[in-house]
């Protein structure tokens, strides 16, 4: 065996340890994992949230955060932050409110750590719901009330001191422990663990264990969310590829489908499979009634319900029933085709049908999710949607897909740590890589970073990385470069790059966007007006240069969340809390006498960084929390001794008054903002930007390193602010996806392209001018000029179809006949 | 499939089916993920369709197009709720406008029949990209639409000139020309989509296909009178004798 990937995951923290939460003793104290099961349609009460004591719906529910995490005394749990609990609790609150709009939810929390992409908005959404209270307080479980089995919680309030309040149910937001028997696993594989019993990893390659050839992915690296787990999963895969490239494809077997049955002469025989999607559809839409209705529709010969149509057994059932009932059209009424259409098409192929005889009716995103309060109407709408699909299905035709060749080279745009790491991993698997960097030197944002929180020498690492890139014969570096044009499609891109080499036209099969991000230039707190005010990165630079004014300062203030978590930029920049802690610790190391204050909103030192936060507090770094509506103020002034200082005023909740600090230096934790060039890159490569201006991945959780556009991938802080180790994870992850594409000789192009019925073509050329891809040309015939489509170039947008006066040109799979059948079916309401 | 795939016929068909409102959602203008930018085509189609609706007395607010991204779920919900309320306020199609149901049906049927014709004559405008939002209102003028329907072009084959050569019949994309050897060709006006292919195809030396603007089309000559009687071959060419036509004129 040449390589091993360890992905044993994690173990939920067991709150019975220490017994302080009453878990196991009080029936209505549950863990967040238990609660997750309660909400699940396959759970103990089929998705009804009920109390174990009396099977009644709880009305007043409390969540207690940080159970087993961020604990100072070892028996009560781990010292690190489990990183995922704040957001999963918010999800549970939102779902609880969907179950019961009247529910009163109270969350007892420490810092709210919404540091992930789009998490800040999610937090605001949960906080904004009626009947929701977020209370910042440590708590203790009081008692169980014998008659009602309700549970009391004691907590402190700024105004009324300690209060005791009764709840119907208490949810413990338990943290993430290392996997069970991590020590045994480490022994067996001969790898080392870190002090928390997670895997000890190489800081510059967090998928590498201490033993060469053994890789780690997922939560065994550190407590982590789904996207980061996907980064490291794909990334560990890519690194195995680097070791095993010489054996690629040797064990692969081509998938063989049963021969396609010719059903074109048969009457349509339609089967409809209506999915409950657990409770997602079934709780709103009356599925059995909908199935009954399907049976009354013309050409429907079979209908049934399924709990999860996408589950392996249900997909197999679709294949089996298609064969057994002799179906020649299959409809699954479930979710958006964007996610699962490929799976169901495959299911249909397994039954010997052409995959284009499959049709998807979206009764989740288009119905149950948007009408959760109107169950009756939602059921009627689900019927309408399915009736339309049935009408369309009658007109579906078998289509053939096209194999396109794949150019084996990759283009990486952006030569920072992410871009270089990705380029190296791809090149190490035998593919040519063109690496394009806007600046004269490679390195990106990391050029201004000297150390990581864990102590890595970033500049030394960067020098080594740049060296490796230039040494690699398969990597072509273009510096001072701009992309001037981008054309083509998956497997066959053509990009024009202007660099010191002149203009180069690069042909490549895959594209990686790793253009990085910029730093917000503050306009507040006297930045740019007073030289003593600087950003956190500038502070790091001055510390590293040994600027005496900085390292000999008597007092230094850091202000967090400058330029983000506000109306203009409603997101958390993720890295700034760690950055400030890092600078604070460095300064304390150089000058232990310095007074350091960190003015923060929530300290977001997630994961193992929490240890450094505790260390900073131990070393007497003072943390003062402020609210966004009551921001600190910075003014130039004099200290009592007549020293020129910056007067920083901040509210102090604990003291209940304003504090005034005389600071020699003020460091602003300035936001990471989208790169100035990202709009142009987005336009050129036809990839989307999200609401905050960062590049938008294909799926936040499941496809975090690729774009919706085929063959284009994403890594680094162009995606969202992240730490160096996380960027490296994602860079390897993107390389893994690139290899998945480049290791194939062909890609498949959709069968849904346009086609001309020559007899009906009047040769007017409206289609030719409508097509922006140059996919249509005239051909001389005995009956005059006729349009003809090159299916390889056709993207299936169908503009030509809408322009054609005679209907001669048709977008297959979305033909006039198919769509008009749907339009007519809407009107035939039940 | 892009929003630019939405056909004028789709919208009119929905209204013919009794839908009280039609909504078209497209990506944000100028933010196409491809190079298609077909949302402009959708927009132009909607602008035209709204003018047509006004022409036949329907409230154009029953047809709406909005551009938004997949990240704008909240905006989508707001727009749909607002449009839903608007349509409810307008009530059933034709009622608030005071159009008789039968009259409405026949008007819509008439317009739908002209969709291919509209696509031919308005092709250029339908394919245009408007940069300034102010230009949207000006794209199709009321006058232009009135003329579009008052000056509808029809094609007619002059029986006197038709030489029954079959060229036009073979070229007709919708097989609307009734033809046979030695039979004067006749355009089936019910099937004809007014694309003008026959007009272009008819050899100039015959010039049998005539364009009629706005006016009525002469009735087709009876079937039994369509046979052409040939006088026979002479030097330098063929002389034709049209028996049917003579009988009419005699």
Quick recap:
The complex is a heterodimer of chains A (830) and B (250). Chain A is an alpha/beta fold and 830 residues long.
Describe this structure in words.
The complex is a heterodimer of chains A (830) and B (250). Chain A folds into 6 domains: 12-177, FAD/NAD(P)-binding domain; 182-247, no CATH class; 270-393, Rossmann fold, CATH 3.40.50; 410-515 and 687-747, 3-Layer(bba) Sandwich (FAD/NAD(P)-binding domain); 519-673, FAD/NAD(P)-binding domain (3-Layer(bba) Sandwich), CATH 3.50.50.60; 754-811, Alpha-Beta Plaits. In chain A, strands 3-10-4-5-6 form a 5-stranded parallel beta sheet. In chain A, strands 20-19-18-24-35 form a 5-stranded parallel beta sheet, with helices on one face. In chain A, strands 26-33-27-28-29 form a 5-stranded parallel beta sheet. Chain A has 830 residues and is of the alpha/beta class. The longest helix of chain A is centred in the N-terminal third of the chain and has 19 residues, at 226-244. The radius of gyration of chain A is 30 Å and the shape is globular. By secondary structure, chain B is α+β, with helices and mostly antiparallel strands. Chain B has 2 domains: 3-150, no CATH class; 153-249, Alpha-Beta Plaits. Chain B has helices spanning 8-16, 39-55, 73-90, 101-113, 115-121, 123-126, 142-150, 167-171, 197-201, 243-249; strands at 22-26, 63-67, 153-157, 177-180, 183-187, 209-213, 229-234, 237-241. In chain B, strands 1-2 form a two-stranded parallel sheet. Chain B has a two-stranded antiparallel ribbon with strand order 3-6. In chain B, strand 1 (22-26), helix 2 (39-55) and strand 2 (63-67) form a beta-alpha-beta unit. In chain B, helix 1 packs antiparallel against helix 4. The relative contact order of chain B is 0.11. The model of chain B is unreliable at 233-250 (pLDDT under 50). The A-B interface holds A 370, 686-688, 690-691, 696, 708-709, 752, 759-764, 766, 769-770, 772-773, 783-784, 795-799, 801-808, 811, 814, 816, 819-820, 823-824, 826-827 and B 1-2, 4-10, 13-14, 17-19, 31-38, 41, 45, 69-71, 77, 116-117, 119-120, 123, 126-127, 170-171, 173-174, 193, 195, 197, 201.
